[in-house]
Amino acid sequence: MPISSDHAGRTYPPTAPYEVSAAKIGEFAAALGDAHPAYAGPDPIAPPTFVTVVVQPAWQAMFDDPDLGIALHRIVHAEQRFSYQRPLRPGDQVTVALTLDQVRNRDTADFITASARVETVEGEHICTGTAVFVHNKVAA
Q1: In this structure, what DSSP letter does residue 3 have?
Q2: Which of 30, 92, 105, 117 lies most in the core, judged by the most C-beta atoms within 10 Å?
Q3: pTM for this predicted structure
């Protein structure tokens, strides 16, 4: 059955823990071309969009879900928002639990809103990332 509004509310198990490191923060900031001093030094914080590295495996679980019938090559990442409690820091071990918040089917497109709750392995809420994906149901 292709993805439909009936799938709203579906949740996926938390991802395996990911350990944030100063090296990964530095590499990510360098890839962005962002030399902000907060991302370097003895006590760096991660750039706000670094969390996409952590969230990607949770999105992959949704993309790989055979019940949804999603073809990744027909997905457009249309929107992204983050709501932070605090920044990610080296030493944080985090997991991500993904929920399908809303699915709207319009003609040949599916609009999928998913939220990814990022928590430390101890249960501290770090942030929630909300993404909207547009899935074209017709092969191009």
Answers
A1: -
A2: 92
A3: 0.91
